[in-house]
Amino acid sequence: MMPRRLTAILVVLLVGLAITPGAALAAKTALRMGTWQADDPAFGPFYKEAIVAFQKANPNLEIVLEHSPSATYWDKLLTQIATKNAPDIMKFAGYNFHEYVAMNALEPLDGFLAKTDILRRFYPVQKSFPVVDGKTYAIILMQRGTAVYSNKRMLLEAGLAIPKDLNQFAEAAKKLTKKRGAETVQYGLGLRTDPKHQDVQEYTLLFALAYGSHWSANGKWVLTDPKVIQGVQYVKDLYDAGVSPLSAQPVLLRELFWQEKIALHIDGPWYYAQIEKGNPKMLKDVGSFLLPTAGGGGAVSTGGPMNLIGVSSNSKFKAEAWKFIEFISQSEWQGKFAEASFNVPGMKGAFSAEFLKANAWFGTFQEAIDVAEQIPPPGFETKFSPVRKALNNALGDIFILGKPVQERLKAAQSELEKLATR
Amino acid sequence: MRGRARFHRCRWGQVIGRTIRIAVLVAATGLLLFPFYWTLLTSLQPRGAIYRTHPSLLPEAFRWQSYLEIFQLRPFDLWLQNSFLVAAGTTVLNMALAIPAAYSLARFAYRGKRTLGMVVLVTQMLPASLIVVPIYLAFLRFGLLESKVGVVLAHCSMTLPYAVWMLRSFFETVPLEILEAALVDGCSRLRAMLQISLPLAVPGIVGAGLYVFETSWNEYLFARTFISRSENMVVSVGISTFIGEYDVFWHQIMAAAVISALPAFIIFFVFQRFLVQGLSSGAVKG
Amino acid sequence: MSAPASADPRPTPPHPPAARRRRRLDLLPYLLFLPALLAIGAVLFYPVVQAVVISLRSYYLPKIATGGTPFIGLANYRAISEAPEFWRALLFNGVYTVGSVAGLYLLSLLLALLLHDEFRGRGLFRALVIVPWAVPYVVAALTWIWIFDIQFGVLNSVLLRTGAVEKAIPWLLSPNWAKFSVIVSTIWKQFPFAAIMLLAGLQGIPRELYEAADVDGASALGRFRYVTLPGLHNVSLLVILLSGIQVFKLFTVIYLLTAGGPGRATETLVVQTYLEAFSTFDMGRASAIGVVTLLVTLLFSFLLIRFGYREEVKA
């Protein structure tokens, strides 16, 4: 009995040994990819298509999407990074990208980049924004610039031309606000003012830039600079004049524009698809223009690189993960991404001529890329999250609680200066 | 004369009292359910009717398609299934562990009893954001991520202390004489617990069980941290995927919320009949 | 008159006074408690200990790679105690908890009394009470934000149309109104739990007590004062204790409704913990705030139990 048992065991072992290498070869390597856009009507289909095509071209690789809604994606990502269990392929927003680089969450890609030239047609910003200490940490997937959507019909009715400087802009906003008794039936301009929503500082920044300054300059905070104060005061004055719904959520502003209750709305190119879905009849009345500089003669925009894609430093399949990034950086896929989502990708000239002809409004957003300033204050990118919170709180106090602009910005300045010493 | 007057007073008193009581109840319930009514209304209104300075209190059109869409756009049926398995699993496990523990606190005197009782409660006093990362790490090491078992364990740990304290309070309401009588009759302590205390504390067990089920069903933080793949999600997490980066899909969210609230409502409706008097009183006299 | 059984932490053990038994260490109660303790401990022991440990270190994520996590003693605690926002948050946390618990208790008591007696449709009403609890937090928050919206919210719409107010109320936009709104939303979301508990507690009051009160000629109010309330004493305490612990660290309602604003007016300790951890990435300071939260809650619970639990006398 013993020898027979022993033989049986040996046979099983041998067979197992024979099968295993074969099985290992046949087994797929699963790459985890984290995203907050899997269910987005614009980006979702693109990713699904790209993944299917990639898996076909690489039969031994499989991509598993790990999806979280954008509000909670970052908390989860932080948990995963802290426990060294981050997804192999990671997507980032332009805001907090540098914070994650500072945490050593990303793998430098220079080794992979040396072997390929897919980035030759990319915008120059690919060589500066994702590069820290000489190492490239991500590939830019999408850039954007914000511009002003306008309801051409309302402008025509009010006899207004496209504003060429901020004075004309304010006049237009006020003229386009119509009241009936105590109730406002048409708003001139949608302003984001509730600090609960992260983008207050981003959209107010637009006006500070129109006067000529970002929140910081030369590595220092300049919140008390007259240009910044003027920009914030400009927004406050417009808000107090009642041109905008009171502290509306951005979602509400977007709804109201396509319901034709707001004449001017500042947003990015992705918003067009929402108008299409909500009220396709008004599309013919939609125009777009860049916000002018305060004195006229120029244009401003905010945005820059907004989506980046990289490889996590704790990944066990770095080379394979890079393969996917390389895959979607090819012109064909950059073009698909651009035209599916109405966003400017990392590569230049991704839009076909037909597309640009069919979507004349998009021209403004392409121009925006050339003037778009990055949103994280220059020099303070690695502390963006707490900076954003402090700025939003300050602006909220100014707009909603009516605190005086100069005083409150001064307080914010000292708060931010203290933050730098942590 | 005294008897008859009292009888009349009783009857009128009863009728008026009852009418007032029901009127107050209906008013209170209506007021309390208004936000839910608003949720329901939003799920049925056309989008344009939602944002208005004076929104209408009654539906203008019935857009019931959202109720179908949520099943088409997402694996909502899988989510419901997952939620149910997790909540039921948590409840069963929880009751199995909490009942003996609560009985121990209620009917025995022993050293360290007070401390043990406080210790389990203390575990609940830390903000959840601090607990998430260490638990994630532990679950990662033990392969409990992306699985319902992990979520059930996490939910159990957050509901056990409350269940234990709730059940303890109800075990304490079981009159001592009954237990003593049983023990004098030769019943073992365990049997006394199972056959006498338990049935008499049924309202408490139902209450605690419902609490655990409901907490687990709606729990969001751990469920979303431990599970990443869409088909493994539970309803509470799945609903949040209707909140996009730039757009909120109101109809689908509200429709999903209405459907999500149904199981708890049905279960409670079925079990609330156990919340009745008379199970403990009267037993002493007999 | 007999009363509900004793709730004294040290009741007489219900086993026969055999001298033999008393000498041996009674393992049964410990064994009964053990599985639950293990289940809780397995998941939560390490995190709780770690939170305390980390609060004594410098744990700032961007600096870990270069500086590690050195032990810094009570420096984190000193830092937070010097921040006025911390004390404001602590104060509001207290106000918020007391306001919400008081509100939800009274509401639940009223409902439990109304749902106690038999009447047709009682089952349906009881089930309806569960609805606020059954709605997911995210959806409840979205709905309330909408109801409270200053221009498009139904609350202001009704108040303005009926002439109850002249100007729209800034429910979420003014610091004081926001505090109120947050408490209202919390009460709405949390009361069903208390209502069920009190309802179950009402069932535990023996009918004979009411009958005895009737015989003594007590009015409805008298019955309430001398039978119902005392009968509910310990359940009420439990409800207040457990609700208090939950509400004190309740994060979702406040964060979704106001994110701690406007002007940080509705920021509680829990919101600050979250922001320190997930926004500033300073786990050390976040843990310190968390430990303070734990200590405050522990103190409150201890006092409540110590001075609240009443032994009920059996006649």
List the helices and strands and how they pair.
The complex is a heterotrimer of chains A (422), B (286) and C (315).
Chain A: H1 2-26, E1 29-35, H2 43-57, E2 61-67, H3 70-82, E3 89-93, H4 97-102, H5 110-113, E4 131-132, E5 135-136, E6 139-145, E7 147-151, H6 152-157, H7 166-175, E8 178-180, E9 183-190, H8 200-211, E10 216-217, E11 220-221, H9 226-240, H10 250-258, E12 262-267, H11 271-278, E13 286-289, E14 291-292, E15 299-311, H12 318-328, H13 331-341, E16 344-345, H14 353-358, H15 362-371, E17 372-374, H16 384-399, H17 405-419
Parallel strand pairs in A: 1-2, 1-3, 9-12, 15-17
Antiparallel strand pairs in A: 3-15, 4-5, 6-15, 6-16, 7-12, 7-13, 8-9, 10-11, 14-15
Chain B: H1 2-44, H2 65-73, H3 76-107, H4 113-122, H5 128-141, H6 148-172, H7 176-184, H8 189-200, H9 202-218, H10 221-226, H11 235-240, H12 250-271
Helix pairs in contact in B: 1-12, 2-12, 3-6, 3-9, 6-9, 7-8, 9-12
Chain C: H1 19-23, H2 28-55, H3 61-67, H4 75-81, H5 84-114, H6 122-129, H7 131-134, H8 137-148, H9 154-161, H10 175-203, H11 207-215, H12 220-248, H13 252-257, H14 269-278, H15 283-308
Helix pairs in contact in C: 2-15, 4-15, 5-10, 5-12, 10-12, 11-12, 12-15, 14-15
Architecture overview:
The complex is a heterotrimer of chains A (422), B (286) and C (315). Chain A is α+β, with helices and mostly antiparallel strands. Helix content of chain A is 45%, strand content 19%. Chain A has helices at 2-26, 43-57, 70-82, 97-102, 110-113, 152-157, 166-175, 200-211, 226-240, 250-258, 271-278, 318-328, 331-341, 353-358, 362-371, 384-399, 405-419, and strands spanning 29-35, 61-67, 89-93, 131-132, 135-136, 139-145, 147-151, 178-180, 183-190, 216-217, 220-221, 262-267, 286-289, 291-292, 299-311, 344-345, 372-374. In chain A, strands 1, 2, 3, 6, 14, 15, 16 and 17 form an 8-stranded mixed β-sheet that branches. In chain A, helix 10 crosses helix 11 (271-278). The model of chain A has no long low-confidence stretch (mean pLDDT 89). Chain B folds into 2 domains: 2-49; 65-274, MetI-like fold (Orthogonal Bundle), CATH 1.10.3720.10. Chain B is built from 12 helices and no strands. In chain B, helix 1 (2-44) packs antiparallel against helix 12, helix 3 packs parallel to helix 6 and helix 6 (148-172) packs antiparallel against helix 9 (202-218). Chain B is flat. Chain B starts with a helix and ends in a 15-residue tail after the last helix. The relative contact order of chain B is 0.13. Residues 278-286 of chain B have low confidence and may be disordered. With 315 residues, chain C is an all-alpha fold. In chain C, helix 10 packs across helix 12 (220-248). Mean pLDDT of chain C is 85; it is low at 1-8 and 17-21. Chains in contact: A-B, A-C, B-C. Chains A and C meet through helix 3 and helix 16 of A and helix 3 of C.
